Sequence to fold (238 residues):
Amino acid sequence: MRRADRLLQLIQILRRNRRPVTGERMAAELEVSLRTIYRDISSLMAQGVPIRGEAGMGYVMGEGFDLPPLMFTAEELESLMLGLRWVSRFGDAKLQRAARDSVAKIGTVLPQGLKPYLYDSSLLVPAPFGDNPTPVDESHLRAAIREERKLFLHYIDLVEAETRRTIWPIALAYYDRKRLLIGWCELRAAFRSFRTDRIAESYALPDRYPRRRRYLMADWEKQMKKEMREDYAVDPLT
Fold:
């Protein structure tokens, strides 16, 4: 790895961690010696990068510093393109259009030497075997999650029983063929998940739910871990 690339990677490691990062951890990730890390950190600090810390204690990135957002590495571009290709194949119409728009925006400002990693990526997302049902338009569900608004659902479960309920939507779980809407159900007074293809009717209510989504997500994750469902695959309830 060239020294310039290594310095950028050091900055990226510090940017993605909120807690101090030890020199040993950075050396292991970059596969260089601890002495090299300390020398590079000193060089960055001398150039005005607001890194705080010391050897043996760890380092953190101070506020007020950022890199241009499109200084991507080849692997970062490949990971972006892989995700965008997945969305283009399995997302609903608005997500598919957003993915295509994202590729166009990124490609416009990329240096010429990096464009092949975006447009000619070798990481593919094949179509699934068998029938590929048209994705349900979930844009209003995503909007309710972003705005932390309550949702009304007319839901038909796997045994064709119908219920009408109000939920506090917190997340959408994406699988190749199915989607699960996850939220706090007022009817059951508990977290529940609902297959979006079995929602007969839904619309956002004017009321916001009383707790912030991130706290509800934390509670839901604790519940899933307690139930030892590591894949977070919650079955829709009747």
Remarks:
- The chain has three domains: 3-61, 74-119, 139-226.
- DSSP finds eight helices and seven strands in the chain.
- Residues 74-119 form one domain.
- The longest strand covers residues 162-174.
